[in-house]
Design brief:
By secondary structure, the protein is α/β, with parallel strands linked by helices. The chain has four domains: 238 residues, TIM Barrel (Alpha-Beta Barrel), CATH 3.20.20; 81 residues, Translation factors (Elongation Factor Tu (Ef-tu), domain 3, Beta Barrel); 92 residues, no CATH class; 46 residues, no CATH class. The chain has 14 helices and 31 strands. A hairpin with a 5-residue loop joins strand 8 and strand 9. Helix 5 packs parallel to helix 7. The longest helix is centred in the middle third of the chain and has 21 residues. The two termini are 54 Å apart.
Length: 613
Amino acid sequence: MQLRELEILAPAKNRDIGIAAIDCGADALYIAGPSFGAREAAGNPLSDIEALAKYAHRYGAGVYLTLNTLLFEDEIENAVKLAWDAYERGCDALIIQDLGLLNAKLPPIPLFASTQTNIRTLQQAKMLESLGFNRLILARELSLEQIKEISDNCSVHLECFVHGALCVSYSGQCYMSSRITGRSGNRGGCVQPCRSDYNLIDSNGKVLIKDKPLISLKDLNLADYIPQLAQAGITSFKIEGRLKGVSYIKNIVRYYRAVTDNFLENYSGFKQSSHGKLHGGFIPRPLTTFNRGYTNLYVEGSRGEWNSGDSAKSVGEYIGKVESTSSDSRGNLVFSYKSQERIGNGDGLCFISPKGDVTGIRASLAKGKTVYTNDKISVPPGSELYRNYNHSFEKELESNMPKRLIEVRVNFTNKAGATTLEGIREDGERVCVGIEGVFERAQNREASLSAIKRQIEKSTGIYIFILERTDIEEVLFYPASVLNEARRALAEKLESVLITKNSNEKSASDRASLVTPVILKGKTLDYRANAANSYTKELYRQIGANSVDDAFEISAPEEAELMRCKYCIKFELGTCPSEGSKVKYNEPLFLENRGKRFRLGFDCKNCEMVIFG
């Protein structure tokens, strides 16, 4: 039976963070090049991407270039050039949003459909499969049942997000940032209006809720669902965070490495998609790094409390409650708290008062359960206490990294006066080295065999050697220096033969030979089709569309659907009529921020909320 490969896919803001992710167990990385990467603050020179690909390929890990913005007409040529440059520098796939690239002259490289292509139905998945995509990155809002339906009816690989920040809108269908500021989320410039505070207002102008982040979601955490996701058909578990720092990436990647390894050890039919196991190092603590609280979103096919609460910022791990407060001689806050956890010097703290006010400070000195600060603020007793920066854990992340080592099985042979070492790497690659010289017969056979085993079974570079078999006619005494040199030579030979990343992905020639069905026959596509260039419009026409409107970024309608969301404010407030609530509002309801109002619509048939503007 062929084992299905599972991949932990980590974000890389830059080369160094990408290397850290590989060192902590990532099977693949996604990273932006100099442009068109959907995160304006996370671009990288091609030389860094080339270096990162070489490092990742030592472990059989992949590097995927994010080419996932909408492209204007005059950008297609440069985007295609970037795709070729990435291919020639060793990238293993392109993640794209703009379907127009399928009509351009891309290199023979696997193509992944970005989550911004709005893959939340089987129909959309089958359309993208028919266009030649090798992998579909599914919408975050899908349930296990919906994922399995797509998997059962499509032959391409499926990827889903398992951790990190959540957009409130379906990805690729949010135009709010563009409407407010002219900075398009589909072109990498999102100003994150979903994290802002809003008033909720009824049609009479009555303020129902004031100054709260009403459309800010908690962060995703599906670590407990890795087995179910794999069995539903997911092959790549994606961690969000191309703007996150190195400590976040180290911590969360190692966390998912441990969770996935536990699954692989206990379930047959699956294997890790890259090579190497982690040895030693820090123990991951996912609550310690940036999060707005965690949710499993809709994976079980039901709603929960998805809103991030009183703050759209990271409050961190819960510590306990403030018992008492006072001030020192300078007027700085001093407080005591009740908790099993201990706060340390330099920790970052967050308080949420009984009224919901959020305050952050730094602990300058902790003595027992009393903390002294350099902040002249007031925190009421009873406030909930969180830690969003753990100083000692951050130091451990810097100084106590794991070693990622690839196992090599060694056969030691001494026959007809010739001594050889054969090394067999995890991917099946075999290399041999000989030991030359004249050596005395061993006076103590067992001691000599023990010395051979001891010197061979050491880690060298990225390899750890296991003496699997010995075939010895005459036991000789080999000096430790000779055995060590032979082991190092074995490692150098293996290093010269890079691991080939296994891939059954379709090639560009396969894509060119596809007969694309007329899926959109007779349809009229509006701005939500995200057609920002003639290549995209032509592709839609090739699959049957009668007409295709310009993208929002080119010609925005006067009133438009700015967001469509699985999240619903009524449900969060406990006033959903479908859940039996009798609460009636004077509708329509509005979100208000700095004088701007956005009308809310409630599509109860599809259980979705819509924000118009």
